[in-house]
Design goal:
Elements (H helix, E strand, L loop, with lengths): L10 H7 L1 H9 L3 E2 L4 E2 L8 H5 L3 E6 L2 H17 L3 E5 H4 L10 E7 L5 H12 L3 E6 L5 H5 L3 E3 L12 H19 L5 H22 L2 H11 L4 E6 L3 H16 L2 E6 L17 E5 L5 H13 L4 E6 L10 E5 L7 H19 L18
Parallel strand pairs: 3-4, 3-5, 5-6, 6-7, 8-9, 8-10, 10-11, 11-12
Antiparallel strand pairs: 1-2
Helix pairs in contact: 2-8, 2-9, 4-8, 4-11, 8-9, 9-13, 10-13, 11-13
The chain binds 6-O-phosphono-alpha-D-glucopyranose.
Length: about 375
């Protein structure tokens, strides 16, 4: 186990840079080119049982919950099974109805988060079926679940999760393809997504080339006392995770909003003092997102835009970061990477204790 920072100033940035390799490890042996599906050997459920699943419910805490939200959207889109995510910490206390036709998925880097474990036990006690998406092999949650998908991100030291989180998203993509291919996802679409996953490591490397531009953006964003992160549909879990990461390591206040909801309230706050980081993928919602950017610009709200190569945001944004295009369903995975670097660079500017932010623990193993 390598607990050495190597050439990096902090574990957080080291782990950010380990992501291409971490994703490769997560994909190894799982891309089934013959049947255009994902091979998931740890699932302990046969095709008939997988086919009988009518809903997917994902449970996790903190960033794992946001990854779960990204995963739920991906699974619903790819496999056409209704899916949602909920914080395990809420689920376990609300006496949830456990449905025998739902596949419950517990997602956790450490595999030791007490709230997530308690949710798993509640599901099992009521006769539900729960699998794990876990990084640490042999951890308590991994052992309590009926099989699952190991993330193989390698040991993560920084409190702010980066590579484990990316691998959670990759794990959900594999699960979505697997569930889809025993339903109506075509071989061609299955293969399209496998190719998209295989392209991720090199594309993540490409995102790292934007680090100087992200550091520039961090320079002006670090002077704000509060920021908005906005995205819609596929971009919304990205915005939530971006805001969370910034809060955790920089201690700046950040709030994530659906871009579509801006006009229903938060637009009142837009002013030169409140910067917005907008997630604007080149997808079917691009025009609507650009309209929202104009609304922010018209109120002199400073803007940083995370988008795809070739999208023209004109003069609206002070900083524009472009990431490579993947498949639309997988784009959120790449759009998250600049936000990790942004949280890191802002925190460097502010001189924060990046690997051990105040008041936080890497895993919360008590009630
Ligand atoms: C803690 C950490 C978070 C993490 C969450 C879930 O609250 O501070 O960064 O996302 O636990 O951890 P897990 O190990 O279950 O993914």
């Amino acid at each position: 186990v390598d607990f050495d920072q190597g050439d990096h100033d902090h574990f957080m940035v080291k782990e950010i840079h380990e992501q291409p390799e971490a994703v490769r490890r997560c994909l190894r042996g799982r891309l089934d080119e013959r049947f255009h599906t994902a091979h998931l050997g740890g699932l302990e459920l046969d095709a008939r049982e997988m086919r009988a699943i009518r809903r997917v419910k994902i449970l996790g805490c903190g960033s794992a919950y946001y990854a779960g939200q990204l995963g739920a959207q991906l699974i619903e889109e790819v496999a056409r099974i209704p899916a949602d995510a909920e914080p395990a910490s809420e689920f376990r206390y609300r006496n949830p109805v456990i449905d025998p036709e739902t596949l419950y998925v517990a997602v956790s880097q450490s595999g030791e988060t007490y709230d997530t474990l308690a949710a798993v036990q509640e599901i099992k006690r009521k006769g539900g079926r729960v699998i794990g998406l876990v990084n640490v092999v042999g951890s308590t949650i991994a052992r309590e679940c009926c099989g699952g998908i190991y993330l193989h991100a390698g040991p993560e030291v920084a409190v702010a999760s980066t590579k484990a989180l990316t691998n959670m998203s990759v794990g959900f993509a594999l699960l979505g393809i697997h569930l889809g291919r025993i339903r109506d996802l075509s071989p061609a679409n299955g293969q399209r997504l496998l190719d998209g996953l295989a392209a991720l490591p090199a594309q993540i490397e490409e995102v790292f080339e934007s680090r100087p531009k992200i550091a520039d953006a961090a320079g002006w964003l670090a002077t704000a006392s509060s920021l908005f992160f906005v995205g819609r549909v596929r971009g919304f879990p990205v915005a939530r995770e971006g805001a969370q990461k910034l809060k955790e390591v920089s201690y700046l206040h950040a709030e994530a909003y659906q871009t579509s909801e801006l006009k229903h309230g938060p637009l009142a706050l837009i002013s030169p003092e409140l910067p917005t980081v907008a997630i604007v993928p080149d997808d079917e919602l691009l025009d609507r997102n650009l309209t929202a950017l104009h609304e922010i610009g018209a109120r002199s709200g400073p803007l940083m835009v995370i988008t795809h190569q070739g999208v023209d945001v004109g003069e609206l944004a002070t900083s524009v970061i472009e990431v490579p295009r993947n498949e639309p369903e997988l784009d959120p995975i790449l759009l998250t990477i600049p936000l990790q670097l942004l949280a890191y660079e802002v925190s460097v500017q502010l001189g924060r204790d990046i690997d051990k932010p105040r008041n936080l623990a890497k895993s919360v193993t008590v009630e």
